[in-house]
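Quick one:
INPUT:
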């Protein structure tokens, strides 16, 4: 009767994984419904759109691009940033200038990293979380993690079932019956995956469903040319930059021997 113990283990894997997925999906749907009315008349700022699309690093990129386009910051294709105007117009720009340092010049890569971790970006993130537009830190992959757990349960149940079929069984216990018993938890796990495939909302790492709706609405609210360009960078990232030199500056990778 050792196969019965394996069957109980298979049910434990499948049951716990499917229960977690269902509870996570219900909580996410409830949060989505709660925040649905809150975002109806809200307009995203450029920095908010950048964070919801690509997180803190995207905010730093948009700030650098914005300052470079206004000729208040020089971004060389060799990977150096030079301050032209040391007066930041908002706290994000002040964070970038502070990240460059008192010498007014620095490699772009460490500037991006320090600016992305600045207090101004953390405050922006906290405000978006409170508004229900951003996913709280550590919860961005909750639904995805639950789906991965169900997939792992499918593999575990399959392995346990094959193991049970390879074990010698008692006289009078058909192997087909053993396989049928293991097919039940396997069917449960596969059914949950199928339902999640069609019913569970595709959550991003940074934006909640409410935040994703606002991001998708940005295309319907065109602004001036410069604003449209920066919005495109905020949503799509560096690949939206058309200027070869500016794009080269932000995609430059420092050599290992360089500081």
């Amino acid at each position: 009767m050792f196969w019965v113990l394996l069957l109980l283990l298979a049910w434990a894997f499948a049951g716990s994984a499917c229960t977690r997925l269902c509870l996570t999906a219900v909580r996410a749907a409830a949060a989505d419904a709660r925040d649905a009315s809150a975002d109806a008349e809200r307009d995203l700022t450029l920095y908010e759109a950048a964070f919801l699309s690509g997180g803190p690093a995207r905010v730093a990129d948009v700030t650098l691009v914005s300052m470079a386009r206004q000729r208040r910051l020089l971004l060389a294709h060799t990977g150096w940033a030079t301050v032209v105007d040391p007066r930041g117009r908002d706290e994000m720009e002040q964070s970038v200038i502070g990240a460059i340092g008192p010498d007014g010049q620095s490699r772009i890569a460490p500037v991006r990293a320090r600016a992305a971790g600045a207090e101004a970006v953390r405050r922006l993130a906290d405000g978006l979380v409170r508004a229900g537009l951003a996913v709280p830190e550590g919860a961005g992959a909750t639904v995805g993690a639950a789906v991965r757990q169900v997939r792992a349960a499918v593999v575990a149940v399959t392995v346990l079932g094959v193991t049970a079929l390879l074990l010698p069984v008692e006289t009078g216990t058909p192997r087909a019956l053993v396989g049928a018993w293991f097919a039940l938890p396997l069917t449960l796990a596969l059914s949950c995956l199928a339902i999640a495939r069609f019913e569970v909302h595709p959550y991003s790492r940074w934006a909640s469903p409410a935040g994703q709706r606002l991001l998708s609405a940005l295309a319907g609210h065109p602004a001036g040319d410069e604003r449209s360009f920066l919005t495109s960078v905020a949503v799509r990232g560096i690949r939206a930059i058309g200027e070869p030199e500016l794009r080269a500056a932000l995609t430059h990778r420092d050599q290992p021997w360089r500081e």
